[in-house]
Amino acid sequence: MAGNNPNAKLMNLTLKVWRQKNMNTPGQLVTYPVKNISPDMSFLEMLDVVNEELLVKNEDPIAFDHDCREGICGMCSLFINGRAHGPERGTTTCQLHMRSFRDGDTITIEPWRAAAFPVYKDLIVDRAAFDRIQQAGGYVSVNTGGVPDANEIPIPKTIADKAFDAATCIGCGACVAACKNASAMLFVSAKVSQLAMLPQGKVERKTRVENMVAQMDIEGFGACSNTGACAAECPVGISLENIAFMNREYLTAKATSENVA
Amino acid sequence: MILDSKIPEGPLAEKWEKHKFNVKLVNPANKRKYDIIVVGTGLAGASAAATFGELGYNVKAFCYQDSPRRAHSIAAQGGINAAKNYQNDGDSVFRLFYDTIKGGDYRAREANVYRLAQVSVNIIDQCVAQGVPFAREYGGLLANRSFGGAQVSRTFYARGQTGQQLLLGAYSALNRQIAYGKVKMYPRTEMLDLVMVDGKARGIVTRNLITGKVESHSAHAVVLATGGYGNVFFLSTNAMGSNTTAAWRAHRRGALFANPCYTQIHPTCIPVSGSHQSKLTLMSESLRNDGRVWVPKTIELAKKLQTGELRASDIAEADRDYYLERKYPAFGNLVPRDVASRNAKLVCDEGRGVGASGLAVYLDFADAIKREGLNAISAKYGNLFDMYAKITDENPYESPMRIYPAVHYTMGGLWVDYNLMTNLPGLYATGECNFSDHGANRLGASALMQGLADGYFVIPYTIGDYLAQMPSDKVSTDHPAFKEAEQNVQAITNKLLSINGTRTVDDFHKALGQIMWDYCGMARNAEGLKFAKQEIRKLRAEFWRDVKVIGVNEELNMTLEKAHRVADFLELGELMVDDALNRNESCGGHFREESQTPENEALRDDENYAYVAAWEYAGEGNEPILHKEELKFENVKLTQRSYK
Predict the structure, then answer these.
(1) What residues of B are in contact with residue A3 (Cβ under 8 Å)?
(2) Which residue of A has its CA nearest to B242?
């Protein structure tokens, strides 16, 4: 009943935080002692507290991405003690709570590390590469209006559920950060699988997988060596099956290619 | 100023069809000569930007997040309403219209709401065609569930992540237009001023949040789809970055702000746990389909629950008060949000609240789990239960959730006419950013409906009518109006950076939020509102004297970003109080203690307040000017809302 417990023991911690002024300046880990942290705080609320203290001392607050703080927008992106989104499985950084740490712990906080995700400042990286991959084909080409009644496209529940599972990717980039090759295969395969499974997406399935994979390579993401670290660290549990599915899609498309070189 | 809502003549059911025929069209070859700016990429913005691109316009779209996919529409959980009547349970366009008008406590425009109900059916078709994976039955057809304020099942959903799936659908359509080069996307960019040229909205001034660069963008029309202003309360279910700045700066340039006091306090949120709290998390209204809301019957039992001496499971059935089921047998736990929230406040004010703070009620799934089994409940609400467990460290499968109302949605917003144009020619507002469709209270699963209705099916028609009547000549960003706006932005930034005071931006924001919650929250009265007005003025003066913003403009400076936003909240807060004070009646989410029925329900005053209050900015330090748009009801009878 921690959420209910006014007597929860406060914690003292040591943070080692990646500080980097901008893209062109080298960064380094800086140590900050923090005191009186409630276990009921979220990890980002703990950083809020640190930042308020830094501000009072006229020091630049630690820049980090965050927005919804409900685990769904995919904006938060911290590499905590060597793990994407920290120690809890299936949890984004914003949903991670300090009760996952112990009094006296040292916590290392870094940005996502990948050539395709350059650091803007401190813990904030540029993930526009993900958007460009989606722009390469992550859609069904329908204009607004002129579509059939929704129930004219019946879809077996099992397929709809599987497509939904793939569609829940929040695009945070943890899969890339967790991968020793900085591969984006899990991210790309989630969208490819979702749309290839559904009747609406089947029409463009070949060009889609070819174009998205080509863009992924252009962006400089690494190759997949099937270690599964991506799926293990994914905060929303996107399955490794999607990568296998995409590989099949890709091979089929290439074997009968009508699209890209 | 005369407010012309431009509602078309004719019978309610024919207005939109007729209007679509009457609006002027821009021929396909000419569309490429027109530029449209869309600010915000949530459901209302992304859908509009994508559709404009498909039609052939040149679009510039802006969002403050690092990607358009992260707009806060993504966090909507429960579902989206549509009058499909797939369940054969008596739904119709008229019933959805009626429920929405009634749910809004008769403070919305009939014509707008009817149109919303009409196009609701197209939205579902569109989203399915895009590949949005809605929940389905075993026969392969779409599933529905019921939501508050309705007695039919018309809500389409994708587990507890409907907003995410709809937004990713709109995002995919937007991406397709970005790839075609019809939409140019500007992420991590914030609008800080509106540019008016010869009485028309012709562009915006933005700040690049990475480099700090202030830039002008020129267009033939500007669409604001920047969401709501719930973060004026500091604590709300909004995203941390959600703000009123784009809308407020447009207001300062002359756009009227309508019904700012209409805020929705959502009944089912996870209660505040401490002073470190940065935001509140919603638990979807869909949970009220299966969860039963209760508190103990006596204060004595409540005290023991608060101290932890007793647990929820220790309270005998006979000692529980399922107060919504008791007071509203017809709707039970599915009464509209305003009614559910007010009742939670009432029982907590009586001392019967639970949890350490006494500011919570139970939402109990024990009966549903007994009836349907753990797996069935988990399939429906699994992700919500997991989220609750992560935040509270309690298992909702074993003990009831503790919930309390929290600020969630703002029905007020920029005043728009039937075409979604503000009083400033060429400036449009869509989705939560406008005031138009929800009256004084929004029903669950209607925000997603309105955002997509506006963006996919309304504004693509109405903006053409405006553009067809103006020349396609472009205004250069060297025009003095752009230079003046850039200087204005720079001046505000310089002022914020030069104060170098002692109190942080968050500190001011929290103080403002406390005033708003205490005096302009779930219950309001004249005395409190007058006090709040003075307090906000004092706080604002102190902000401009003592705020601490460090660093420079030419860098990624999150403190500066927040300072711009909080400066605007400090002005908007006062306007909300003014509006709440002016509206001496209770309606929907606006509850004036002076105006209630003997059973403590909201008591409207249709004789004196059946109008939209649209406020005009009158300059720094001057009282805003009130303009009234009378609401005419020709198709529904105004009654005391009853959910008994």
Answers:
(1) 273, 391-394, 402
(2) A67
pLDDT at B431 over 50: yes
Q: CB count, 10 Å around CB of B448?
A: 29
CA distance B114 to B101: 9
C-alpha closest to that of B635 among B153, B100, B149? B100
Which residues of A fall within a CB distance of 8 Å from B172?
A: 134, 138-140
Reported as a single tens digit per residue, the pLDDT across B54-80 is 999 999 999 999 999 999 999 998 899
| CA gap B469, B477 in Å, rounded | 22
ipTM of the complex: 0.97
Please tell me the distance from the alpha carbon of residue B418 to that of residue B116, in angstroms, as a whole number.
11
What's the rounded mean pLDDT across residues B248-271? 97
Q: How far apart are CA A43 and CA A65, in angstroms?
A: 13
Q: A98 and A46 in contact (C-beta within 8 Å)?
A: yes
- In chain A, count H helices and then E strands: 9, 7
Average pLDDT over residues B34-51: 98
Distance in Å, alpha carbon of A139 to nearest chain B alpha carbon:
5
- CB burial of B213-241 (b: ≥16 within 10 Å; e: otherwise) equals ebbbbbbbbbbbbbbbbbbbbbbbbbbbb
Per-residue tokens: B165:
């799936």
Domain ranges in chain A are 2-121, 128-255
Query: Which CATH fold topology does A2-121 show?
Result: Ubiquitin-like (UB roll) (3.10.20)
Q: Which of B276, B281, B394 sits opposite A45 (nearest CB)?
A: B276
Confidence at residue B249, expressed as pLDDT on a 0 to 100 scale: 98
E-assigned strand segments in B281-356: 292-296, 320-321
With CB atoms and an 8 Å threshold, state whether A120 touches B210.
yes
Query: What Rg value do the Cα atoms of chain A yield, rounded?
Result: 21
Q: What is the pLDDT of residues B583-617, one digit of tens each?
A: 999 999 999 999 999 888 899 999 999 999 999 99
CB contacts under 8 A, A 127-186 vs B, are: 127-128, 130-131, 134-136, 138-145, 147-151, 153-157, 160-161, 163-164, 167-168, 170-171
Shortest Cα distance, chain B CAs vs residue A135, angstroms: 5
B456: distance to nearest CA of chain A, Å? 6
Residue A243 makes CB contacts below 8 A (sequence gap 6+) with A185, A186, A189, A224, A226
Instruction: Enumerate the active-site residues of B.
Output: 337
Domains recognised in chain B with CATH numbers: 12-77+101-120+162-264+409-467 (3.50.50.60), 265-406 (3.90.700.10), 480-630 (1.20.58.100)
How much is the CA Rg of chain B, to the nearest whole Å? 24
Candidates A20, A67, A132, A212: best to mutate against B (most CBs of B within 10 A) is A67
CATH topology of domain A128-255: Fumarate Reductase Iron-sulfur Protein; Chain B, domain 2 (1.10.1060)
Q: Residue written as tokens 């992304």? A: B46
- DSSP code of A235? T
- Interchain proximity B133–A194, CB inside 8 Å: yes
